[in-house]
Amino acid sequence: MPELGVIEGYFGRPWRHDDRKRVMTGLRDLGYAFFHYAPKADACLRRRWREPHPDAATAELTELSAHCRRLGLRFGLGLSPYELYRDLNASARAAFVAKIRLLDDIGIDDLAILFDDTRGDVADLAAREAEIVHLALENTRAGRVLMCPTYYSDDRMLDVVFGQRPKGYLRDLGRRLDPRVGVYWTGEEICAREHSAGHLARVAELLGRKPTLWDNYPVNDGPRMSRFLHLRGFTGRPGAIGSHLAAHAINPALQPQLSLIPAATLAASYREGQRYAYMQAFRDAARALAGSDLATALEGDLTHLQDQGLERLGDECDRLHRRYLAFDHPMAAEVVRWLEGAYKVDGWVEGS
Questions:
Q1: How many C-alpha atoms does 4 have within 13 Å on its Cβ side?
Q2: Cα angle at 120 between 175 and 108, to 5 degrees?
Q3: Which residues contact 162 (CB under 8 A, 6 or more apart)?
Q4: For a 10 Å CB count at each end of the chain, is N or C smaller?
Q5: Alpha-carbon distance 235 to 192, whole Å?
Q6: pLDDT at position 352 over 60
């Protein structure tokens, strides 16, 4: 089994602080080893990265770091130095180093430098990104440094949205990066249906290291996916891929408590190997985490919640709303809020 973790890297409203702490406790119990905080809505980690976090946010992150440490989890922050690669002059370098030191003061075990979801049609992109990552590596107190490439998948949608990737980008990046640096990778697609040992072996050969999988399930951000609850057990992640990974991190759903159900099934898929059955894993996880009655309700409504989606529920929405209001459980409360439209994401807008 590779090291399991969570990369909180979605668009939309970030989890509440208390929910995040409760989920960290649940993840520890499931055998997860690390948590990386990097929601797209945290502007002080993305477009306004030069600015320090407000005092209240810094205090929460510091408390979350201490909470993870008490649990035995590694805690990391994901910093996206927006378009720093375009002009890494002396002033920009100083601002970047100052930001790294502020993040260190929060108390991080891992530092992730994330170049995802920004334009990358620059001929020497790999060289520029490697220089930034090495600047972080030289100045952080974190014990582990990772990065996410601009082109973090084979998916051609990245080229459509962010510009044509430079020829040989991934191999060039792997050749330039210090061997100590981990690399996040989402797979053959941005939201990959499956991950194969053959594909991951090819990526490892290009990068000169095993990738850390950024698995975009059960994430449900964005205008389309936020209308669905991703609850079923993991599929398409055979245990055989574990030997081709440095680690396996999931990008969770907008619903923190419900995210624990599929998270439990990923651990089961590695633990059980060829004996793994995704629906049985879902049933086992739902019963353990939600209780028998709520688990039965969730399984009975899977077609409505995960396949049909919010916009097509029609009269079923009222029935489901009444059903889950009757449960006194945080997972049921998240279903209720989803039915009420509280988790809708209407665009890919980051925090500003």
A1: 24
A2: 65
A3: 117, 118, 119, 120, 121, 150, 151
A4: C
A5: 11
A6: no
Task: Express each pLDDT in 327-341 by its tens digit.
Answer: 999 999 999 999 999
Q: Which two tokens stand for residue 176?
A: 């330039």
User: Which residue type, as a one-letter code, is found at position 149?
Assistant: P
Listed residue (55, 7, 15) closest to 251, CA to CA? 7
Is there a catalytic annotation at residue 110? no
Q: How far apart are CA 350 and CA 352, in angstroms?
A: 6
Q: Which residues pair with residue 247 across a beta bridge?
A: 3, 212
Question: Could you give the count of Cα atoms lying within 13 Å of 188 in the half-sphere of its Cβ?
Answer: 12
Specify which residues 184 forms β-bridges with. Answer: 212
Question: What is the average pLDDT score of the chain?
Answer: 96
Give the orientation angle of helix 169-176 with respect to helix 125-139, to 10 degrees: 30
Neighbours of 346 (CB within 10 A): 9
Report residue 304 as tokens.
């409505």
Mode of pairing for the β-strands spanning 247-250 and 182-185? unpaired
pTM of the predicted structure, to 2 decimals: 0.96
Which entry of 42, 116, 117, 215 is annotated as an active-site residue?
117
The pLDDT of residue 256 is above 80: yes
Bridging pattern class, strands 110-114 and 182-185 = unpaired
Q: Which residue has the tokens 């916009």?
A: 311
Question: Which stretch of DSSP H or E encloses residue 51?
Answer: none
Tell me the residue type at 195.
H
| Radius of gyration, CA atoms only, the chain | 20
Domain boundaries, the chain: 3-283
